[in-house]
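I had to read the description of the data format several times before I understood it. The format is easy to grasp once an entry is in front of the reader. For illustration, here is how one protein appears when written out as sequence plus structure tokens:
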Amino acid sequence: MINIGEYNELEAFQLVDAGMFLIEKEADIDAEDLEKVLLPNAYLPASLSRGDSMEVFIYLDSEDRIIATNLKPSVTLNNFAYLPVKEVNSVGAFLDMGLAKDLLVPYRQQAVEMQEGKSYLVFMYLDETTNRLIASSKTNRFLNNDDIEIKEGEEVDLIVSNKTDLGYNVIVNKQHKGLIFQSAIFQQLHTGDAIKGFVKTIREDKKLDIILQQQGVSSTEPNAQAILDYLKANQGSTTITDKSAPEDIYAAFGLSKKAFKRALGALYKKRLVTLTKELTQLADPIQPQHNKN
């Protein structure tokens, strides 16, 4: 079966004026209902011959004909993406997904009325009535926290959804809703960002609290080593101290201020660094290198 909205590994079957018809690999070419899809000349490699295999993306063109392309769209079936609006008309908003045909978001599927030139986080799915690929910015419809298999402390994939008074809503592993509280954010976040995070708490009501850095003792040593590596790469000292602003600490080390101070304290106790109001330094300063004659 050739799947719309997905990448398919197909076989070149018949060259025609408009391009090359592709079929499923090992398909019965004598079958009356042989499923064929056209790869137009615009996407047809000169070296492609009958029997060759090729990975293509399948979608419907403006006339609802099934079409193959070797272009890489910005989103695939049942996935999320942050896409710009190219046009808005009486039907809805049309998003640029990197193909000749734009992706429609009907008005009924818009969480807020979309505007041309702006970008929105959407979920692309196959409309069962029309068999067309469409999208929705009402992303919560496609998330479910009833059956959560992840565990507290587990690393997860995140897509930043939107900012709230509490922090940022995020999509967890493309399946669940989560929240990063503002107090746990030490970096710039933007809608559509794909980042890593950790499950801090799974609440009784199935809400997920997410953090961007792993908690506990297990993260102390890697953080401490990161500080040592940074100091060694910067002549043994830095103006970043435990009094520095959280955003400056994150920009230099990728750590929250709390994690930085914890790791710095561990290094200080081991007498590996010295601390002043102005500097954090290696206890054993790096000596300048001299050329030997």
